[in-house]
Amino acid sequence: MKVTAFAVLVALIAGATFGVYFANRRVQEYPNDPVTVRTGVTQPDRPEPRLKLDSTEYDCGTMSISDDGSHVFHLTNEGSATLTLTDGGKSSERLGVQATPETIEPGKSGEITLRWSPTAEEGPFRYSATYFANDPKLFRFDLVVKGTVQGTLRVIPKEAEVDIRSAEGDESATFRVLNFRQTDFAVSAVEYENKEIEKYFEAKITPLSSEELKASEAKSGSQLVVTVKPGLPQGAFQQKIRLRTNAQPEQDTSVVVQGTAPPEIRILGRGWDADKNTFHFGSVKSVEGGERKLTLLARGAYRKQIQYKLAAAPRPFAVRIGETKEIKDGQLTQTELYISIPKGEPTISRLGVPDEELPQVTIETTHPNSPKLEFRIRYSIE
Hints:
With 382 residues, this protein is mainly beta.
């Protein structure tokens, strides 16, 4: 029984001794092996490379579509063994990679150069190259270049909404056309796509000042002011305008002006609410009465032929239509509309009642698209 116990003890001691011996051998031969790590055996001092990078990312800012970019990343071997680099691939075919040299001796430096051609579309880009090294503490690293592609030409804005608040027109939209490569760029002419309404648009081209170019970081540019003339047919409109330039390479450039043309007959004046189609006459004293004035403004092809006739004016109102005259070099016609409350009318208030309970005035016209004008009046007599 004692012999058996002694034999077991000897076997355990021998097994432990051989285990430690082979573990140390494995550490020496395979220092990064997972089995070695699990043993917890301390690795003996041995020469190792140590990779140091000056940076891993480069932001080139903005660049033109036609430009190429390059950047050099510097790396140093601060270890005591030869550093070996292995190409691990790149994120895009637009990226070229060159490492010089592929091995770096202790205390020496090397370079990795990335060269790229940006995408043909404007906007941000990001390319990366992956490398593997025999540094046990930095066995993989990515080098990144990023930036923003800026086209040769840029139009700001590309579309503009023209807010035509009155039938008088003469509203405008302003565009800037910037060139980031040429110093002699200019817009020479414009071409309207919608020929049916071309006559209602006027374009004025002027060069941008040196201060404006500096603020935009452009080398040259033009300002385009598009004015919408009176007379556009009622309703929504859109006009695409192609710009003729001396840009190299040649580039199709256009802007869009859109909006809504007001009705060909509009009512204007103090107290007029176009959204509710009501007129706030206000308060008058019965012993005095009072008069207010509105204006009928006509535009379009029938502006000079329109005639107006009073069809209905409920008590207490008296309505008189004045003479029609041309304004804006004949682009518009203007007719005054006089609305009065004679003195002596009984006191009443229609200031707080619903719109549908207000008295309604009706005026007939000879315009084929607007044969009748109707509106309600809010008032009080004290």
